[in-house]
TrEMBL record:
Organism this protein belongs to: Nocardioides flavus (ex Wang et al. 2016)
Domain FAD/NAD(P)-binding: 6-318
Protein name, UniProt field: Pyridine nucleotide-disulfide oxidoreductase
Pfam family, any one: Pyr_redox_2
Annotated Gene3D superfamilies: 3.30.390.30, FAD/NAD(P)-binding domain
Superkingdom assignment: Bacteria
Cofactor(s), by name: FAD
Family indicated by similarity: Belongs to the class-I pyridine nucleotide-disulfide oxidoreductase family.
Amino acid sequence: MTEQVDVVVIGLGVGGEEVAGKLAEAGLSVVGVEAGLVGGECPYWGCVPTKMMIRASGIIGETRRAAAIAGEASIRPDWSLVSQRIRAEATDSWNDKVAVDRFEGKGGRFVRGRARITGRGQVAIEDQVFSARGGIVVATGTVPAVPPISGLAGTPYWTNREAVATEQPPQSLVVLGGGAIGLELAQVFARFGTEVTVVEAARHLLPAEEPEAGETVRTVLADEGVAIHVGATATGVSHDAAGFAVTLDDGTTLIAERLLVATGRRPELHGLGLEEYGVDVDAPVLDVDERLRAAEGLWAIGDVTGHGAFTHVAMYQAGIAVRDILGQDGPAASYHAVPRVTFTDPEVGSVGLTEAQARDAGLTVRVGSSQTSSSARGWIHKSGNEGLVKLIEDTGRGVLVGATAVGPHGGEVLGALAVAVHARVPVRELRQMIYAYPTFHRGIEDALRDLQGPDV
Ligand SMILES: Cc1cc2nc3c(=O)[nH]c(=O)nc-3n(C[C@H](O)[C@H](O)[C@H](O)COP(=O)(O)OP(=O)(O)OC[C@H]3O[C@@H](n4cnc5c(N)ncnc54)[C@H](O)[C@@H]3O)c2cc1C
Ligand SMILES: NC(=O)c1ccc[n+]([C@@H]2O[C@H](COP(=O)([O-])OP(=O)(O)OC[C@H]3O[C@@H](n4cnc5c(N)ncnc54)[C@H](O)[C@@H]3O)[C@@H](O)[C@H]2O)c1
């Protein structure tokens, strides 16, 4: 028996849950299908629990900075507080009943299982089949991209999921990948007493960011005792009762109790039945237009679309897809000012293009930067004041096309920069603004002064 409905949403992570809930509230008959937990990666294994871990490790970091400023302080890190908080407050011990009830309370119909498109407008979950006259929304997210390193497959390596669920920090940990996941978790575990080694294949940590950002984080992590290998490739992994041995291309062998693989994430397009819509399932991402349409009657949102694997991008796209499905007007998707924050200490906030990306795009750029430690607030802050602001101006238009804020509250300083890049505020306007004294965001004014050359 095939049931007729308006829309089927495949995957109820942050993006799919938002679309399905909003469409149900608008009065459509909506089926939401989820193979795992409603809410997806962010609340159960991603943003929320990792930021709880970071909140705790941040207190440890600040306590260790106290001596030079406020007096001797000591702290005995207790992981059980973090582990219990993740279970009690973030994940309900990985139970999504509240989220399922919330969706059903909006009038949605929930189906647990793995969905597959079996024809245009048709979705099957085992022997349940739905015909969606209004269309299908794919919001299936990503899975960890595990590199094909000899010996790795079949070992009990961690991804973010095991790292979040662990009830005690390991004695020692090798982190493969110096991106957002790798560095956030490396600093957390190091501050809780784990001996951590990071292995990053690129020349800098956080290679998607400005090199200065990665270098600043590298210095701070190294000072905190994290061993860092950049430009290093793992050539082999083995595991026995004693733990992991990871061999690098320079012959070094790293020994650790645990191995965290944090080498990126990728959409899984196979097995969804997307061929029914002529989609190339070997492509790296599910391509969508500015209305989030992947084909006639098929929408896709969130990480699967490859426009930035962030909760705020999934939510932003959800809003546009909902409007389009409901036939409402509104602005099309634009990605010229996607903000992103890596919540290390110091935080790395950035928006838009890096200097290299702007030059590669053929823009004529001016670059200005300032060091947090040279600002009044950074000097007052003292320990833990490593950071910078870097601005990328397109001189042709006299606007910022990219910016980075590294430092204490770098992700909050980013707010002002995101407005400037998003709204294309002229640089000459930014220079006439008044910046409150003594804030970290006054570093923006210093960096504007550093932009060399005449104003347009
Ligand atoms: C450790 C970590 C930390 C992060 N921290 C941040 C952060 O601080 N800030 C931020 O903005 N982002 C962060 N992210 C990224 C954020 O979690 C993702 O961008 C977000 O979850 C994407 O939402 P989504 O709905 O696209 O996909 P997901 O949340 O991945 O949800 C997709 C859902 O689809 C389901 N699914 C897949 N295939 C099927 C199928 N065939 N049938 C039914 N269901 C299916 C999956 O089970 C899953 O629940 C972090 C990610 C990780 C891993
Ligand atoms: N604060 C946040 O917003 C936040 C936090 C965590 C994750 N995320 C999202 O999740 C996504 C995935 O995170 P991630 O850290 O896994 O990916 P990432 O792409 O940010 O970083 C992966 C890193 O691994 C390196 N790498 C790849 N293969 C390697 C190998 N074989 N050996 C050594 N290094 C290797 C890459 O050069 C890169 O630096 C991020 O891109 C981000 O969008 C966001």
